[in-house]
Specification:
Number of strands of chain B: 10
Strand order of the largest sheet of chain B: 6-7-8-3-9-10
Order of helices and strands of chain B: EEEHEEHEHHHHEHEHEEHH
Strand order of the largest sheet of chain A: 1-4
CATH architecture of chain A: Orthogonal Bundle
Radius of gyration of chain B: 19 Å
Helix content of chain A: over 70%
Distance between the termini of chain B: 51 Å
Structural class of chain B: alpha/beta
Largest sheet of chain B: 6 strands, mixed
CATH topology of the largest domain in chain B: Rossmann fold
CATH class of chain A: Mainly Alpha
Oligomer: heterodimer
Radius of gyration of chain A: 19 Å
Number of domains of chain A: 1
Mean pLDDT of chain B: 83
Low-confidence stretches of chain A: none
CATH superfamily of the largest domain in chain B: P-loop containing nucleotide triphosphate hydrolases
CATH class of the largest domain in chain B: Alpha Beta
Chain lengths: 292, 262
């Protein structure tokens, strides 16, 4: 029973970690808390569904949805956030909140409030290891999210653009003095963030089997992940994702029957609060020491 | 390393009647000077004279309200910092601005950004073309590491290294751009006597061996007098004197600016 919960939790945690990486990427680059990350997850899943419904094969729908999501992220940065450069950071954060409601409204207007069946990428059924039943959808979700995380980390540490992104995240003035366009990096950050959000949305859609507008509430869990791991930490996003995923699964299995319905969604947030009391900057976050 | 062919000393950088105001305060007041190819030009002056502000105007971080700045006869006055860097102007900062979490190798490698030709996706996927280019850039970085005697620190995270070494790494990152003009903001600041001597040697070698022109701000007069071809003196945003070290050190206006009225 506990092994079953752990496997389910690690799978969901891997996907949360992937989505959280997108959130951290934007925060590291521009210090903007993107409250629309959950909506980008939902939008990616709905774009994939729309493409599949239009008659495209599933593999093509997934690839095009991810590319289109990257384009959406790029456009959001250029059209909505670029004009706000130099404005107080709180204004920019409020704009991301407005953006979240706008995306949610668009999805409601186009697809309505009903739950829609999501096409299955992975074969139905499951297999058994040491008495633990592992559905193929969970195994596939875990493998794909881990591969995506690995690609993300390789991109961030090995490529020119990746190193430029790290440079901008660390010190914008120094990055500009090296010929790095900070504006371009911001746009790429949003594109990649929307891209990983779409991958996460498609994987979660597969596990749930259906999606609707409330799917965006995954953003709350992702926010818990990044606060737990540390807003500016990539390892923190990964570890935080796994912790939240496992806490959610264990809470659902062991605590929900005792405490009552919905506790599995609350338990990770309670755990986050406990850890935050001990480590206010998150598990891996950069501590800020300021002279007052 | 990347040697530049010997050329007649043409004007490389020209600052013409530049005025920069913050609110009603003039940080730079109608400043003009010229830097020639292959030259080490020092900018000196008391604290608050506007030296760093002028450097920030040249590198695009500040936009002057009046005047013009030309680099190789092209106006760069209101261009963005990353565009100016791409044109061949690199800089270091008064307080070391390094990427704390990166290794020495990665920090200097970040200076190669403008020289990448390969599509970043190919580079990321490490295809043949991307790999070949990566190797080429890595070789340049290794040359810089050897040039600045940073071999033992190449895999170390820069935030863990002593301040003097960090200064050298920042210099290496600027050299990785292969600039024609290097702007150094107080390269001696915070260094020990031995480190200052080493830095003086590096600055001279960068100028003589690599053929890179240098504009530097410095408070250490001994260093300035020893290595500069010419000196520009700023006081309260105005250029009050310019010339060779010998001409400047005996100029009564310079003495007045530093010592004040008795």
């Amino acid at each position: 029973m506990i092994l079953q919960s752990l496997i389910n939790g690690i799978t969901m945690g891997g996907i949360y970690a992937l989505i959280a990486l997108g959130f951290v990427l934007i925060y590291k680059a521009s210090k903007v808390l993107n409250f629309a990350q959950g909506e980008l997850v939902m939008a990616g899943a709905f774009i994939c569904l729309a493409l599949f419904d239009s008659g495209l094969p599933l593999w093509a729908s997934v690839i095009i949805a991810v590319i289109l999501s990257a384009f959406v992220g790029f456009i959001i940065e250029k059209a909505v956030l670029k004009p706000l450069i130099g404005e107080p950071i709180l204004s920019v954060i409020m704009v991301t909140l407005g953006l979240a409601y706008m995306i949610r409204g668009l999805v409601l207007a186009i697809w309505g409030p009903d739950i829609r069946a999501f096409p299955q990428i992975f074969p139905p059924g499951s297999f058994e290891v040491f008495g633990v039943i592992i559905p193929y959808v969970y195994l596939g979700g875990l493998v794909l999210s881990l591969v995506a995380i690995a690609v993300f980390i390789l991109f961030f540490t090995r490529t020119t653009i990746g190193i430029a992104m790290r440079a901008v995240a660390d010190d914008q003035s120094a990055a500009m003095s090296l010929g790095i366009s900070v504006e371009k990096i911001f746009a790429i950050s949003w594109a990649i963030s929307a891209m990983v959000a779409a991958i996460g949305g498609i994987l979660v859609g597969n596990i749930y089997g259906g999606i609707n507008v409330n799917f965006a509430f995954i953003g709350l869990k992702v926010f818990a992940v990044v606060i737990l791991g540390g807003l500016d930490s990539i390892p923190g996003a990964i570890v935080g994702g796994i912790i939240i995923g496992v806490a959610e699964a264990l809470g659902g299995t062991y605590l929900e029957p005792v405490v009552g319905g919905g506790f599995k969604d609350v338990f990770p947030l309670l755990l986050m609060l406990v850890i935050m009391a001990v480590k206010p900057y998150g598990l891996f976050g950069t501590e800020r020491i300021e002279r007052v | 390393m990347f040697h530049l062919p010997a050329k007649p000393r043409m004007s490389l950088l020209k600052v013409s009647n530049v005025t920069l105001k913050f609110g009603g305060v003039k940080a730079i007041d109608n400043a003009s000077f010229e830097l020639r190819e292959g030259e080490i030009l020092a900018m000196i002056g008391p604290n608050g004279a506007g030296k760093t502000s002028l450097l920030n105007c040249i590198s695009g971080f500040y936009k002057p309200q009046e005047g013009q700045i030309f680099f190789r006869n092209e106006e760069i006055t209101r261009k963005k910092p990353h565009i100016i860097a791409r044109k061949g102007i690199a800089r270091t900062f008064q307080n070391v601005e390094l990427y704390g979490g990166m290794t020495t190798l990665d920090v200097i490698m970040s200076g190669r950004h403008i020289h990448y030709k390969c599509n970043p996706i190919f580079s990321g996927l490490y295809f043949i073309k991307g790999r070949d280019e990566e190797i080429k850039h890595r070789e340049k970085v290794e040359e810089i590491i050897d040039f600045l005697d940073l071999q033992q620190y190449r895999r170390k995270v820069v935030s863990t290294l002593p301040y003097g070494i960090q200064k050298r790494i920042e210099l290496g990152r600027a050299l990785a751009l292969e600039p024609q003009l290097l702007l150094l903001d107080e390269p001696m600041g915070g260094l020990s006597f031995e480190e200052k001597e080493d830095m003086a040697v590096y600055v001279l070698e960068i100028n003589e061996d690599l053929g890179i022109s240098i504009l530097l701000i410095e408070h250490d007069m001994g260093f300035v007098m020893d290595i500069s071809d010419r000196i520009v003196v700023l006081d309260r945003g105005r250029v009050i004197a310019s010339g060779t070290p010998d001409e400047v050190k005996d100029d009564p206006r310079v003495i007045q600016a530093y010592v004040g009225e008795g």
